[in-house]
């Protein structure tokens, strides 16, 4: 069974250069090799002042990406709950909720979206990766939520594989920029050989949407409003990448 807890341990450079060890998810190869410092820095600058209704209408027109083929992979599912964290909602439900919101927003932009799962079902890691190849995805996006021994760890991280293509890296960077623009804390781009990133030939990223081991972040990630904000940023980043 794949669970975040069992999948691996990854060493990451945390905010401000402090070394932190946290459990990742998504089926990365087990490794004790330290990750390089995140490529785009680690800490989001203070975000813009958020409007009182962050999920309300946005003034800017949506960037259209007609014909873009995006595969969205909601992490875990079925008998695999993913991280249980300290909140009331298991990772598998949060990943599906965010994945659905990302898909909806991408379809609004004209993209063709394939969901690896759209219900509470178990899919193997190789089965997920195979969807990327089968649909010749322009981008494969795996959605997860993090867990750490250090309860204070917070923030989103966008992973690419250690030998990621320039396309994968560019997509990750656009998503990190969109998190910052949306006032969502981000640890930047990380590198890890998650199975769902290395078992197919298409550009791919794995987005950790925050830490379920942190009480505040677990609570936020359990709300539809925050799931929508995270999804909006991911969709924005994907659209910026596809429109490059
Ligand atoms: Zn996960």
Tell me about this structure.
The chain is α/β, with parallel strands linked by helices. The chain has helices at 4-7, 91-108, 125-134, 166-181, 195-198, 215-221, 224-242; strands at 9-13, 19-23, 69-74, 112-115, 139-146, 156-160, 186-191, 204-211. The chain has a single domain, classed as Zn-dependent exopeptidases (Aminopeptidase), CATH 3.40.630. It is 32% helix and 19% strand. The strands form 2 sheets. The chain has a 6-stranded mixed beta sheet with strand order 4-3-5-8-6-7, sandwiched between helices. Helix 2 (91-108) crosses helix 7 and helix 4 (166-181) packs across helix 7. The longest helix has 19 residues, at 224-242. The chain is globular, with a radius of gyration of 16 Å. The protein starts with a helix and ends with a helix.
Write the layout of secondary structure elements.
Elements: H1 4-7, E1 9-13, E2 19-23, E3 69-74, H2 91-108, E4 112-115, H3 125-134, E5 139-146, E6 156-160, H4 166-181, E7 186-191, H5 195-198, E8 204-211, H6 215-221, H7 224-242
Parallel strand pairs: 3-4, 3-5, 5-8, 6-7
Antiparallel strand pairs: 1-2, 6-8
Bound molecules: zinc ion.
């Amino acid at each position: 069974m794949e669970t975040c807890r069992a999948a691996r341990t990854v060493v990451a450079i945390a905010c401000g250069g402090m070394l932190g060890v946290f459990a990742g998810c998504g089926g990365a190869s087990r490794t004790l090799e330290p990750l390089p410092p995140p490529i785009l820095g680690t800490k989001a600058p203070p975000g813009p002042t958020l409007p009182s209704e962050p999920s309300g209408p946005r003034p800017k027109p949506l960037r259209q990406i007609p014909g873009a083929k995006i595969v969205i992979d909601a992490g875990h599912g079925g008998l695999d709950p993913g991280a249980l964290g300290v909140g009331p909602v298991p990772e598998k439900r949060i990943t599906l909720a965010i994945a659905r919101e990302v898909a909806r927003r991408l379809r609004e932009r004209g993209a063709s979206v394939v969901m690896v799962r759209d219900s509470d079902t178990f899919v193997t890691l190789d089965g997920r990766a195979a969807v990327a190849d089968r649909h010749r995805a322009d981008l494969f996006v795996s959605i997860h939520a993090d867990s750490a021994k250090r309860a204070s760890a917070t923030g989103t991280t966008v992973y690419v594989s250690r030998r990621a293509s320039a396309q994968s890296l560019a997509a990750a960077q656009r998503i990190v920029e969109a998190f910052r623009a949306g006032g969502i804390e981000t640890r930047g781009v990380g590198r890890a050989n998650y199975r769902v990133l290395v078992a197919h030939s298409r550009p791919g990223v794995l987005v950790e949407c925050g830490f379920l081991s942190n009480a505040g972040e677990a609570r936020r990630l359990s709300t539809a409003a925050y799931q929508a904000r995270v999804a909006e940023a991911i969709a924005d980043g994907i659209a910026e990448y596809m429109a490059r």
